Amino acid sequence: MSELPNCPQCNSEYTYIDGSMYICPECGHEWSQDSEDNSGNEDRIIKDANGNVLQDGDTISVIKDLKVKGSSLVVKVGTKVKNIRLVEGDHDIDCKIDGIGAMKLKSEFVKKV
User: Fold this and answer.
1) Considering the entire predicted model, what is its pTM?
2) Which PANTHER family is this protein grouped with (predicted)?
3) Total structural domains in the chain?
4) What is the CATH number of the domain that holds 1?
5) What are the beta bridge partners of residue 112?
């Protein structure tokens, strides 16, 4: 039937073309037709505040007090976080912080230990 690729985010088969972009009507994700060649295998390099490259499993330290949205909790400067996981998006670090729980952090507010 259709030779269009499935959505790389939600795997929907209902994608369509608009100009030079593929669009998914279910999740709203848009990607260029040129990215089909890469098929999501592009390695994104995520760096900390000092320019060190971060990898899954690294230990990091928070360099600024961070307020937890929707709560009165604060992640204090110097808080160490072990075994991070890198993810796509604006908040590119997924981790668990003792006393707070699962969090997503921006790499610009951490440094590699």
Assistant:
1) 0.62
2) PROTEIN YJDM (PTHR30305:SF3), PROTEIN YJDM-RELATED (PTHR30305)
3) 2
4) 2.20.25.10
5) 60
